[in-house]
């Protein structure tokens, strides 16, 4: 949807519209999840269990919102189970959805305007975000490995 708003409203307004929509949409999903029952299939999800085990849940939730392949339903449900306050949840959603919404809105505008040179910085930003995700993931593994060695 962010790509479409970038095409229709330009990069800046398309980004702002999509970002606000992402924040409000995730808040609405969290409210619906809180009022309904979630199936056991969702609770058995590997990503969901991973989110619940983290030491810094707000950082992990923000990262999960930034990664498009992680379903927001699972991330929102994990935020409820972690009993994250509404203000911290809102911060995690705002920070997590910001980079990917930015990339989608600006790339949608660049593609529609046939300005392929504008896509180069966006691809670089996207690759940097992927590297950041990998660094965080590897850092978490190292910390776990270190703690496991310390216990033994």
From TrEMBL:
Bilayer topology: Multi-pass membrane protein
Localization (cell): Cell membrane
Keyword ATP-binding: no
Transmembrane segments: 12-33, 56-75, 87-107, 119-140
InterPro entries documented for this protein: TMEM64, VTT_dom
UniProt xrefs under Pfam families: VTT_dom (PF09335)
Origin: domain of life: Bacteria
Domain VTT: 1-109
Main location (coarse class): membrane
Family as reported in the entry's similarity comment: Belongs to the TVP38/TMEM64 family.
Listed name of the protein: TVP38/TMEM64 family membrane protein
Organism, scientific name: Limosilactobacillus pontis
Lineage, opening ranks: Bacteria, Bacillati, Bacillota, Bacilli, Lactobacillales
